[in-house]
Design brief:
There is one protein chain. By secondary structure, the chain is of the alpha+beta class. The chain folds into two domains: 95 residues, no CATH class; 134 residues, Beta-lactamase. The protein is built from five helices and seven strands. The strands form two sheets. The protein has a five-stranded antiparallel sheet with strand order 3-4-5-6-7, with helices on both faces.
């Protein structure tokens, strides 16, 4: 489910997925066909809570937010939402500030390590960010922009003509209305980008790409300038 390959295709309690492009139910075996479906992720969160006996927000609070010293995390505002008449499984969106988004990205950049503590298993970080669905197999076709897909992370794919060397091995978390956490190991960089969607604002993905390319190219240019000056 967390690789978006369940083959279930139930409608989700919240909108924003590609269910409209789903093939007929029963035509795809689990694990064989990618389709971004919110039901998969919502059901996965429910399964997590059943298996652990813990609330997913409490676990993030205790196992990640506190250890990486999030500055703005507020457990009290984290609430599940969705139309439960459509699906019994609500969505469990997380609300982070920009700088706490950057902390999450930095935790991933350092392979799950924070200060003197291994907060997330290094092996799990590697598995999450290893392609399960390659760029060439992304469905529907409009998803074939820059990415392959791992475990709930979008991975910059070397097959894409839009991705230069600086994006090699990079990956990104994408939230609704224009929230992005970008991790770029090749240039040791994290970019956190947040849209204030409370007031109805939305950042289109294409516009975000333009900003990201400017920020990344600026860092590369500064590095080249420093190297030239030191010679």
């Amino acid at each position: 489910m967390i690789t978006a390959r369940s083959g279930v295709y139930h409608p989700a309690s919240n909108a924003g997925d590609d269910l409209a492009f789903a093939p007929p139910r029963g035509t795809q075996k689990p694990g064989t066909y990618y389709l971004y479906n919110n039901w998969d992720f919502n059901a996965a969160g429910a399964a997590f809570e059943i298996m652990t006996g813990k609330n997913i927000y409490d676990v993030l609070n205790d196992d990640i937010a506190i250890p990486i010293e999030m500055e703005d995390w507020d457990r009290s505002i984290q609430k599940k939402t969705g139309d439960l008449s459509v699906s019994r499984y609500p969505a469990y969106h997380f609300h982070f500030s920009t700088r706490d988004m950057a902390r999450l990205g930095y935790l991933m950049l350092r392979k799950g390590h924070w200060r003197d503590r291994q907060v997330i298993s290094e092996n799990w970080v590697k598995e999450m960010t290893t392609p399960v669905t390659p760029f060439s197999a992304m469905q529907p076709p409009h998803r074939k922009d820059r990415y392959s897909y791992g475990y709930m992370w979008w991975l910059f794919d070397d097959e894409s003509e839009q991705n230069d060397w600086q994006y090699h091995g990079g990956y990104i978390a994408r939230g609704s209305m224009g929230q992005f956490i970008v991790v770029l190991p090749e240039i040791d960089m994290v970019v956190a980008f947040k849209t204030d969607s409370v007031y109805g604002r939305r950042t289109q993905t294409a516009d975000f790409y333009k900003v990201l390319d400017l920020v990344v190219n600026s860092k590369i240019s500064k590095k080249k300038s420093r190297r030239t000056a030191s010679r």
